[in-house]
Amino acid sequence: MKTVTVYTSANCSSCAKLKRFLSVQDISFREVSLEDDLELKQVLINKTGRMGLPQTNIDGEWVVGFHIPELMTLLNRRNTNEQQSSHYRK
Questions:
Q1: Cα–Cα distance measured from residue 72 to residue 11, given in angstroms and rounded to the nearest whole number
Q2: How far is CA 25 from CA 3, 9, 16, 19, 37, in A?
Q3: Cα dihedral value 14, 59, 41, 87, nearest 10
Q4: CA distances from 63 to 11, 27 (A)
Q5: Rounded Cα gap, residues 27 and 2, in angstroms
Q6: Which residues are CB-contacts of 7 (< 8 A; sequence separation ≥ 6)?
Q7: 47: domain CATH number?
Q8: Given pLDDT bands bounded at 50, 70 and 90, which one contains residue 87?
Q9: How many domains does one find in the chain?
Q10: What is the pTM of this model?
Q11: How confident is the model at residue 81 (pLDDT cuts 50, 70, 90)?
Q12: Which of 40, 32, 41, 28 is nearest to 8 (CA)?
């Protein structure tokens, strides 16, 4: 099983969509809120070179934003229902 960690903030709509998507896909993940942790925010920027959220680490590989094809590739899964995935992009 892959180790999935999602870095989020409270007012991030893409973060909410990502968490909902992972839950519906029955993918276990650990959520780390960046709300009050400026030091951790800087660590992520240094690692990924990006400031956007969500940031997802899947076994050491990073996805910045809510990008279903990238997520599914790193999770070694095939998204067979394109309509379902488009629901999470809204």
A1: 25
A2: 15, 21, 14, 10, 29
A3: 0
A4: 19, 15
A5: 9
A6: 32, 34, 40, 44, 53, 54, 55, 56, 57
A7: 3.40.30.10
A8: very low
A9: 1
A10: 0.82
A11: very low
A12: 32
**Chain CA centroid to CA 71, Å:** 8
Cα–chain-centroid distance for residue 39?
Answer: 20
Question: What tokens does 57 get?
Answer: 């680490």
Which domain, by its residues, includes 24? 4-87
Q: Please write the tens of the pLDDT for every residue from 16-69.
A: 999 999 999 999 999 999 998 999 999 999 999 999 999 999 999 999 999 999
Residue showing tokens 């998204």: 79
Which tokens in the block code for residue 29?
A: 């993940």
Rounded Cα gap, residues 3 and 50, in angstroms: 21
